[in-house]
Queue: 3 jobs
Job 1
Amino acid sequence: MQPIEPSFFNISTLELAEKLIGHVIIHELPSGILSGRIIETEAYQGPEDRAAHSFNNRRTPRTEIMFHKAGHVYTYQMHTHTLVNVVAGPVGVPHAVLIRAIEPQTGIEQMQKNRGPMITKHNLTNGPGKLTQALAISMDYYGHHWSQRPLYISNKASTAEIERSPRVGIRNTGDAASYLWRFFEKNNPYVSKFR
DNA sequence: TTTAAGATGCCC
DNA sequence: GGCATCTTAAAC
């Protein structure tokens, strides 16, 4: 498996969110390789998107990386969890694509250890906070680039039938709550639960 | 300076 | 339904 070309990310944010599905996230660790197919994403389009951290071009230490080139890693803390995004859009336009779920591929035993013995089956990676724990993606990767080892996205993807829906877990955001900016692979058991 | 609200997930 | 506990904004 080879890393993706940085130019891959130079497409519209919605297009990127859809195209990322089927690509593989690979994390190469000294102890072994952890990987999984992306099967669920959400687009966040900063300036005009009330649900985005970068709404109205809000620029803080947390959102800073979204103003940089597409393809960077945007990690942030949500309560006790780490969530991971792919920065999208041109330089200066703070868009991102949230990785919401993956289908484990390599290193499933290690992912099980990372998640804990009580976690079963699809609960391993069927949520944005769950997959980062399974793949051992921490805040240390903030500002990393998805085309670089040891954490990268594959250049090849397996095709799949894709569905759309409103985004998960956003409220009090007016019209933004109904935008169909969530993409997921049809009939995949690792798709996260709608809240 | 303090408080409330999340792009969540696990336990009761 | 509660709670853990990090960042940010808005209330004091």
Job 2
Amino acid sequence: MPELPEVETIVRGLKKVLIYSKIIHIYKSKYNLRISYTKNFETELLDSKIINVYRLAKYIIIETDFGKSIIIHLGMSGRLLFQNSIYKKHQKHDHVVFHLSDNKSIIYNDPRRFGLVQFIKNSDIFQNKLFKDLGIEPFSKDLNYKYFASKIKNKNASIKQFLMNNQNIVGIGNIYANEILHLAKISPFKSVKYLNTHEIKILIESIKIILNNAIIAGGSSLKDYIAPNGMLGNFQSYFKVYNRENKDCFNCKKGRIIKTTLCQRSTYYCIYCQKIN
DNA sequence: ATGATGTCCTGGGCGC
DNA sequence: TGCGCCCAGGACATCA
């Protein structure tokens, strides 16, 4: 489900409303998520205060004054909702509810349960296996030609697969990989070993542009994603290739958008302006 | 080590 | 209306 722009939107929304709230009750459903809940999940952070909310890759990190953070990943279908009132009406697939002071609540809902909610000591976050192999943040200054070139060295993967691999660059999922490659006018099938200097530079720019524009639009709302306040993002109305099978290309006005499969994920590209050579 | 494939799950949409 | 099939914003494990 959510890629970096959606997670970033959620984090910005939560940051406005959660700081200094105290956790007074934690509910979890009987179903496990992708990773089992941390031990003492329902009691560990009781009475702690939320002191920060931030994003790492596609993870939402809610930091408490107990020196521990709540780590949330939304998987494909997860949602995080905020309510300015005590949450009583449980919906199907509500798996975790944090009841906070001032009658606020945060609700984690995830039909497919591919996500996770964990508590991790702040000092252990980067040693944790969820985080230790993550690549660079796309808005980092260090995402530059040198970094990119070093990462693609000796690799044979397609560029789309490379972009979606969190060990290279974090936060890019299937939608934005498609959009980034279209903006860069590079075929998703192109092997990273054939990318030239110019293409790499354009790609780096395209990553930043697409993700930034998506954040400005509040993310993309297809089926599952809505911001914690219930608002829908609208970047989907700016999609140039994703979900545009057989439509004309906005970019070159000559080609048509093709839908195909690459690495078992639906892949959209313009047959004219994203040629492999 | 790398890349391809399978797997965890539920629900929506489609064709019959 | 109902059934079976395929598809879905992710991330891993496993295998050659």
Job 3
Amino acid sequence: MTDEEQVDNKYYAQILSDVALLLQIKGANRYKIRAYQNASRAIGGLNEPVEDVLARDELTDIDGVGKSIASDIAEIKKTGTCQARTDLLDELDPGLLDLLKIQGMGAKKVKTLYDELDIKNIQELKEAAENQKIRELDGFGKKTEEKFLAEIERLESDDGRTPLPSALVLAESFRDELADRDDVERIEIAGSIRRQKETIGDIDLLVASTSDPTPIMDAFTKIAGVSEILVKGEKKTSVRTVQGIQIDLRIVAPEVFGSALHYFTGSKEHHVKLRTRAKRQGMKISEYGVFKDGDPNPVASMTEEDVFSALGLKYIPPELREGFDEIDLALEDDLPELVDMKHIRGDIHMHTIESDGEATILEMAQAAKALGYEYIVLTDHSQVLTVANGMTPKRFARHIEAIREANEQIEDFTILAGIEVDILKDGSLDMDEELLRECDWVVGSVHIHQQLDKDAMTRRLLNAIDTGLISCLGHPTGRILGGRPGYEYDLEEVLQACKDKRVAVEINGSTGRLDFNADHAARAHRVGVKIVLGSDAHSTLGLEAMPFAVGQARRAGLTPKDVLNCLSAKELVASVR
DNA sequence: GCCGTTTTCGGCCCGACTGTTTTCAGTCG
């Protein structure tokens, strides 16, 4: 994330999490450990910089932060770390934290390995395992040793989380493999995909069935693309695919599908908060339902709505279940009515054969109309992007005419003339001003000179916004999902300028980007900047990336009135510049 | 270490699977 406040909060969260992990290895009181975990999670999920809270002297108002951890946080601000962590690291070893990244390795095992074999890091673990020293320890065996070696090898070649769009494709293919079976009554993709998280750690599938689960589990493990079976039981089976992604399959009875779906959708943080709250009310929540203390029969389990309702809460959409403030909002009936695909009336960012797209103006329009849209904006590239066959002013002038003509040929649909104009190194725009004024919508994007330093990039964007010619900033961070991190600039300053100059910011839904992401979009929204969603389609098929943009908007808590695509074509154009 | 509609003590989310045991601790999500 290029989001500064999140990076800062994440740093604080990490230090506290380190303390929790080191305490675990040391074998400290488990509730003290949990206190540090809770505080770490709370700081990581704050909606404002923790340093602002510190400045107001209100740290202990944060749920999970008491006097002791508040003083740790003050110390981190001053010194970059805290005494608790320093002392633990003196006593233990920093490499032990890495050991915990190994699947199947928890604090107890780390402690045993450290005490018995003086293993302090992954390299030493690898050597001990290769020399078959691990299997001699009490509580360890040959299998554990072999698992460690395999896991170390995997960690060494691992490239992290999977972007949502590719994870979704894989999840859907596995879902579809099982969906047609007679013994599968229902199957849903749960987990972070359902929450529309921009990157995915693993995939969760949930099946409702009344039959013997074994054949379903067998079929699951035999799907083409499974490279390894990690866990296999009657209720839960986990595999790893050739892409290195873990897929978990859970099977439950149909009458508990709602509570199970809620459970497997997560997030963990959401559940911890919800369950703690339920417990105080004398109730228990599990994947099998909501239970009143002592009663083996659930008061709710059939649907997710039932589960929330039994807890006295409004339905919380999956995208908001991150353990931030959604439970309080649901309690007060104050949840945002999230924007949905059904609210989206048009798409503001796409390309045709005029630059680097694969379809004509009319083909794009007809495809968009078939998707139920009322309008599109065609935004081909400007000339500096020669690799993308960018338009010269002359070509753009003709293109505008062609768009106006095409617009006459299609009924009950509006094709707006636009451009994705490059924001040049100094912030000037790569097109004649007159033509930019003539067209309906201007996406301003950075494609070249991405390596400017922070000050220069900030000035560049401010200059571009200052022209008054841009309708929205396209893919505003420039990051490639799972690839390059995006250019550096002062986001707060740029957002403020966008608000002042009535420039919207795009959530670009194209599968490689998701840019802005939900965090950025939420931040823009707080500043009061309007959000607009674009598919950045380069073909008719590319138009189908819009749901990813909607997903990020939903995670950001945006309602239809916050998203310009929910306006008519006329209102859209009038709402900016 | 944190918290309070049982508030200054006595609790702290829940269940599945594995490997190592021979009834369960550890780990994971």
